[in-house]
Design goal:
alpha/beta; single chain; five-stranded antiparallel β-sheet; 591 residues; 23 helices; five-stranded parallel β-sheet
Amino acid sequence: MVARLLQRLAWRGPDGQSHWYEAHVALGYAHLHVDDLTRTPPPLTFDGQVWLAADIRLDAREGLCRAIQTAGGEADQDMPDARLLWQAYHLWELDCLHYLQGDFAFALWDARRRRLFCARDPFAVKPLYYSYQPGLFVASSDLATICAHPQIPTSIPTDLDDFAVADFLIEGMKLDEDGTFYRAIRRLPRATALCLEGGARRQWRYWDWPTDGCLRYARTRDYVEHFQALLEQAVADRLRAPRASVLLSGGLDSNVVTAAARRACLTTDLRAFTCVFNTLIPDRERHFAGLAAQGHGIPITFVEQDNWQPYAPPPAGVPPPPEPVHEPFWNGIMESYRQVGSHARIVLTGQWGDEVMLQETAPYLRDLVARRQLLRLGEALVAYFVADVRNGFFSLRRQFGRILGRKHPTRSEIPRWLATDFVTRLRRAGYFERMQPSPPPHPYRRHMLRVLNRVHLANDHEYSDMAFTGTLVEIRSPLLDQRILEFFLAAPTVPLCLDKWLFRELLKNRLPRAVVRRAKAPLPQFPVTGYIRRHGTSWAQLPSEARHYLSCFVNVEALPTPLVWDARHEAKSFVDLSPLSLYKWLQSKIV
């Protein structure tokens, strides 16, 4: 059984496998060499008593090593991350998680205590799925591996989770962070640990957002220098390899990460990759990303997307995603990852820059008033009007609009084509009354925490995992580093977050002014809008056999035929494509 399940992991861990088992416990590990510290597979045990299978990359290793040495353990900078985790567990047992920073998912078996201990990192970067049934517990970083266990029910469609299917059809993704598309399989949420010991199961959250920090400098320049040092350390912790790729756009987030990589890792062979459209939709990324790459002094490859085909089959030998993805051009995205992975297995990204730099001016000013810090209030108002008057005005207007009682957008409407009995099942199960978890309150960064606390963070990391991309690459996001988040939760938002002032300050002497002063520029259209203008919607029709696959969830006759696409309301029209995305996935799984 262990060998059969490990075989499912072989494609994503081709650089060595190992497994261990006793009467009722088994662990297995498939190794992927991505950097200098993962050159050789770590053993599953270092003492024959504690056994460990981990997908792990640790930050702040120097501080962790000092803590281990102070507590009487052995640690040095050359130790692989798995051994540092093993040392931390020996010293602090279940409390070891309080000493770890980084991206990780692991399962640890303590033979002396007959204890199984699993945990996932604070930002759900590394996936960890599990199934817990009477007499059986199976966990893996790969969902398909658990599905391959013969005692876990994964028949389609009878064993699918109604909530996950409904979320996908209505919202395009799962909204339960602990859910998967299978009722019998769960996800371990971010910053969560699970322990099986003495016949009992315990699950708890071991980390939460820090909300009591207060970082105040006399000079604005000190914030810039502090952040630059943190970012360079975060990038260096993620670039422990002679070569790496970076997903570079013409915007600020990826460029500030690339600039830090060029400063912190002078010997790393860094290559930029940028996805561009030439004719399908309006797109100026080629121009701005080219200017940026020239400013950084690194080569750039433009990945052209104009000829992607909707719902094209995956490349030969690449398994379909373990769960559906509501993106008609997903296989084109997989091809982009393949090109990026041709240079290196480590890929840096500037993702989450918009979230950590959210412009929350009014809450910060109100907090200064509440604390009676009138001098700082005056300085903040001057910086506010000088740094970004126009953008600041509209930000204040939005904030005060919320204070005066404007309502947030309501939940998406229920599509008219959902099957009646499916909606009835959802109502009986309390689907429409679910509450999303809320982050702890913060005096002036509530919106930042609310956005980063959403399930979208876990889902986006899941879609970047090898099981979805089909490519042996690790996506690493330095802006989602605990040290950086602690900085942004303690530092003032004015002027740092005004129109991303902090990022522009870091880049102003390194890149052309056109890039540094460029305004936020998301894609002006969905790519599918451009494709429909060229080719129509005949490709978007469900075949007659789709009724067999979808009848449990969708009233196929109620779907608009042909697809009605409103380019002015792309997001609403995109919902009507979700049954087709679900059908394509169901078909791939059943076949």
